[in-house]
Amino acid sequence: MNVNHIDLNLLRLLLAIDQHGSVSNAGAAVGLSQPASSNALARLRASLDDPLFLRSRDGMIPTVYCEKILPIIRQNLSGIETALQQQNDFVAQESSEVFRLSLSDLGEMMFLPRLAHHVSNLAPKLRMYNIAATRNTLHMALEQRQCDIAIGILNPSGRGIHSQTLFHETYSAVIGWRSDPHNFPTLRNAPIALTAPSATYANDIENVLAQNDLAHNIVLRLRHFGALPQLLNQMDVVAIVPTQYAHSLEDEQQAQILPVTVPLGEHAVKMIWHQVTDNDPANIWFRAQILDVFGA
């Protein structure tokens, strides 16, 4: 017995022969010519090593083996066809879909609260998890659906990657809320604290600073932003941070922005996803919500 070459159309023909009692009528029912139907039945007989149907005065009748497998095939084939034919709709208000994001710790602070608030008003049952894939593993994480969407200053490469720019970000220099800005007229002699996570956030800042002869000023290197506000208020250092975050710190009186030029230019903050989720209605809806909240 060899079932490796049996496809669904052959099984549909098997059921049709049982229903119509005729190979030609069964073929017509499934869209096959009489020769094609006879050839298909021959393939089934060879693969299953059984005649399957025998001729009689009343038409084609199933063998004992065929009688045993027909109900199982009918039930399972019906389930498969139902599964394949069901509408792939997404109703946000009723869905309990889980969306997995990849955000750096700063992205989690800056993006997740606004996005969660927006989405919860439209779809209260939806769930969002942040898995924070590293830059080196992001392509694989998206491809294997360990995460659905990444947001950050990212330029991932690889087959199937899609991206859309949300906005452009610049960098600002900040100091502690109680520090004296007159002590830092420029960055040339300022002690610098640099935060460049390995997750979904740009880690080439130090290289740009080196090109501007500022790398020797770096006195602290941090992997996460969580400790930065406390650090700024305990040390006279200048932190280089995204401007959006700098304004957030200043609004909360945790830091003040220095009126100096940070030579890092603009960077595109992108939404990244993979081809495997490109046509999924749930992910299409979710990407639209991200654009509504963060799109320029």
From TrEMBL:
<dbReference type="GO" id="GO:0003700">
    <property type="term" value="F:DNA-binding transcription factor activity"/>
</dbReference>
<keyword id="KW-0805">Transcription regulation</keyword>
<dbReference type="Pfam" id="PF03466">
    <property type="entry name" value="LysR_substrate"/>
</dbReference>
<dbReference type="InterPro" id="IPR036390">
    <property type="entry name" value="WH_DNA-bd_sf"/>
</dbReference>
<dbReference type="Pfam" id="PF00126">
    <property type="entry name" value="HTH_1"/>
</dbReference>
<keyword id="KW-0238">DNA-binding</keyword>
<dbReference type="InterPro" id="IPR000847">
    <property type="entry name" value="LysR_HTH_N"/>
</dbReference>
<protein>
    <recommendedName>
        <fullName>HTH lysR-type domain-containing protein</fullName>
    </recommendedName>
</protein>
<comment type="similarity">
    <text>Belongs to the LysR transcriptional regulatory family.</text>
</comment>
<dbReference type="GO" id="GO:0003677">
    <property type="term" value="F:DNA binding"/>
</dbReference>
<dbReference type="InterPro" id="IPR005119">
    <property type="entry name" value="LysR_subst-bd"/>
</dbReference>
<dbReference type="InterPro" id="IPR050389">
    <property type="entry name" value="LysR-type_TF"/>
</dbReference>
<feature type="domain" description="HTH lysR-type">
    <location>
        <begin position="6"/>
        <end position="63"/>
    </location>
</feature>
<keyword id="KW-0804">Transcription</keyword>
<dbReference type="InterPro" id="IPR036388">
    <property type="entry name" value="WH-like_DNA-bd_sf"/>
</dbReference>
